[in-house]
Amino acid sequence: KAMLLLxxxxxxxxxxxxxxxxxxxxxRMVQDIEFTQxxxxxxxxxKIGNECLNKMHQVMSIEEVERIIGETQDAVEYQxxxxxxxxxxxxxxxxxxxxxxxxxxxxxxxELPEVPSEPxxxxxxxxxxVKNRPKPELVAAS
Length: 142
Hints:
Among the domains are: 1-60; 61-99. The N and C termini lie far apart (115 Å). The chain is built from three helices and no strands. The longest helix has 58 residues, at 2-59. By secondary structure, the chain is mainly α. The chain has helices at 2-59, 62-87, 92-107. The radius of gyration is 49 Å and the shape is elongated. It is found in: Endosome membrane.
């Protein structure tokens, strides 16, 4: 009877080992399947992204992009020139012309009025008080 119980015990231990191995294999398979599903989603995402890029490439050519960039640079340069004009910045030619005009003015003999030779009066005459005018009210334009 003891021998039969030992055989039964041994058989159940082997059965338990086989079952644990099968469970391990099943767990590995489930993990592999989950990983494969994630890989499939990534591949589908890449496929959709690639299709979108191809559609965008069909719509926009390199020449079109270069043209847009060139137009943008031209517009920026034009705006910079407008800003300089509005800010009153002068070019070197403008500055040279201004300096020449200043030199011409300073070279001319200007007739200044004669300074009076009489001494100034010591007593300052009283000045009548200045009347303050009311400030006009600002009205909003309509």
